[in-house]
Fold this protein.
Amino acid sequence: MDVLLWRHAEALDGEPDHQRPLSPRGKQQAKRVARWLHEHQPRNLRVFSSPAVRTTATAAAFSKRHTVLLELGIGYSAQEALAAIGWPELRDPVLLVGHQPQLGELATLLLTGKPYPLTIRKGALWWFRQRVRDGQAQLLLRTVITPEML
């Protein structure tokens, strides 16, 4: 089972925070990562985004069919987001488009079992895969990419 974490692309400054749109640079960042995702995505990928404008726009660069998930919004914990998607019992891979600090905490929670602060750059994608080898559950960090790498 795969969990992909995608931090929203660069947004314009402004208020209210949840209505900030992507900047022109952010739109390009989202397009670059979306192109890469189209080529490499796992089958049956389900896409979830925070309700903020900048995250729904980032997700929409990849798929018009994404589900807004309140628990990916600002102010929710990494544990709340994982519980909302049904981790670790998920069968289909998921792409979570969200914010800092939650996505960084999600990454460390997956890697270590504890939500430590970790910064994920704007527009970056982290791809985790849970697998079983020799009867042991393992978590693999499959890739990390930033828009500048593409």
Notes: The domain at 2-149 is CATH 3.40.50.1240 (Rossmann fold).
